[in-house]
Amino acid sequence: MTQSLQWRIGLVAVVLVGCVFLLYPSVGPVPEFWQKYLPNNPVRLGLDLQGGLHLVLEVQSEVAVETVVDQAISEASSLMKEEKIRYNDILRTSPTTLSVFLKDGEQAALFDEKILDKLQNFKKVSSAPAEKGFEIQLQLDPKVVESTKQRAVRQAVDTIRNRVDQFGVAEPDVVMQGTDRIIVQLPGLKEDINRAIDLIKRTARLEFKLVDDKADVNAGVKGDIPPGDELLYKVDRNAKTGAISRTPYLVKKQTLMTGDVITDARVHPDKMGRMIIGMDFNHTGAVQFERITGEHVREHLAIILDNRVYSAPVIKDRISGGSAIIEGMFSPEEAHDLALVLRAGSLPAPVKILENRSVGPSLGEDSIRSGRDAILFGIILIVIGMAVYYKWSGVVADVALVLNPLLLFAVMVSPGLRATLTLPGLAGVALTMGMAIDANILIFERVREELRFGKSPRAAMETGYNKAFLTIIDTHLTNIIAALPLIQFGTGPVKGFAVTLCVGLIISLFTAFFVTRTIFDFGFQVKRIKRLSI
């Protein structure tokens, strides 16, 4: 036996042992020592094989654009106070525009000179006298509008993925679809479906706004809401009686600060035993919060989450240190869920559920059984057909064929890939097996052709492998290249099919050229066979 054959046999043996170690956790429960020291990753099943939750969400990204304009209003207001530019009002007049009402034209000239260049994403579209003074209208750059919308969708994907991970759902799939849609698949989720949906869609949009203390809140409740204000409610629930009370607040629409600057959120009881949520801000948030509280001493600052007022304390003094709390009549579960979404990040814009579909586990069991039976039936037919038509050489091809799905599933559960098996993925397995047996047929037909030319069995086998090599590589690479875009841009089942197809084709090359060639060389060199049964 040559040294080359020895290391090839050793490599095949190592690959087989590796398959056993990787696939054993998928067969049955593993002992405790295995969980500590050996791979313990069972085959992950997709939504269509084990049931779960499927959601299609639409991100209302225009809200993120409005937030950019609101923050620019806050920045412009602070800059004008620093530069001592007198103004009457500043407000958002559309999702992408804001108007600054200055005292007179002289103040407008100062605004153009000292403030306009600092609002880099805005350009002046008009300047004229108005009822409130001298009005300057600014518009957000269309490129910034588009980039803000795109960033909102990407951030929503990351935020939802973080929330799902913290919720404890195994193997979630959260991907973008198109420009403003997100597909969420939670395989295996059979309980707490409504709670999961609530956590996913909850905007958790934390905003800090000023309460309009000068306005009549009772008039606002009756519909007489001053311009620039909005009517929001604080909802309290009595823990003993369950009675719900609603307290109205007139708050200014301008958002002074959002929850994007939160670095941590945690739950702890206060002195009365009520659950409160403590928040920590990053450096930018700490600076903003200190500036806001310093500029609005003795005013009420409303802490608003998803258009619901949670508290509206009076700012007694400038607050530094980068932390704040949210108070409310929370149950422990509500408090922990709220802290979870704040910790995972607020959605930059609300999401709308376009499709909500729950897949029952019985459908998954039927799919697994049908897919398994189809693959086993196909293997049996191919094994018998190859053995009858190509005799003992066909049996060698059958050995490689059986190795194909074993190697494929082992690669799919490996730590480097951890792919999810879906029903279309099972179709990919069946297709790669067909490609694998086709590769062996090409090789065997070349060998038969060389035997008819009078070559010896060993020479015919070597020539047959060499001549079929480029043809098989060409067909396999063509299919892999065609499947790569499906992996990159496909979602759910489509991606599952493409992953199994690509991995299966690579394994097919290994079994067709390496495993079968090693078996034949073993027969020629060790068993000294003189006649090839093909």
From TrEMBL:
Protein name: Protein translocase subunit SecD
Domain Protein export membrane protein SecD/SecF C-terminal as annotated: residue spans: 352-519
Record's keyword terms, sorted: Cell membrane, Membrane, Protein transport, Translocation, Transmembrane, Transmembrane helix, Transport
Top-level taxon in the UniProt lineage: Bacteria
Domain SecDF P1 head subdomain: start-end pairs: 245-349
Gene3D superfamilies: 3.30.1360.200, 3.30.70.3400, Multidrug efflux transporter AcrB transmembrane domain
Principal localisation: membrane
Localization terms from the record: Cell membrane
Annotated GO biological process: intracellular protein transmembrane transport; protein targeting; protein transport by the Sec complex
Annotated family: Belongs to the SecD/SecF family. SecD subfamily.
GO CC entries: plasma membrane
Subunit structure as annotated in this protein's UniProt entry: Forms a complex with SecF. Part of the essential Sec protein translocation apparatus which comprises SecA, SecYEG and auxiliary proteins SecDF. Other proteins may also be involved.
Record function comment: Part of the Sec protein translocase complex. Interacts with the SecYEG preprotein conducting channel. SecDF uses the proton motive force (PMF) to complete protein translocation after the ATP-dependent function of SecA.
Cross-referenced InterPro entries: Acrflvin-R (IPR001036), SecD (IPR005791), SecD/SecF_arch_bac (IPR022813), SecD/SecF_CS (IPR022646), SecD_1st (IPR048631), SecD_SecF_C (IPR048634), SecD_SecF_C_bact (IPR055344), SecDF_P1_head (IPR054384)
UniProt membrane topology term: Multi-pass membrane protein
Ranges annotated as spanning the membrane: 7-27, 374-392, 399-417, 423-444, 465-490, 496-520
Chain ranges of the Protein translocase subunit SecDF P1 domain: 153-213
Molecular-function annotations in GO: protein-transporting ATPase activity
Membrane keyword on record: yes
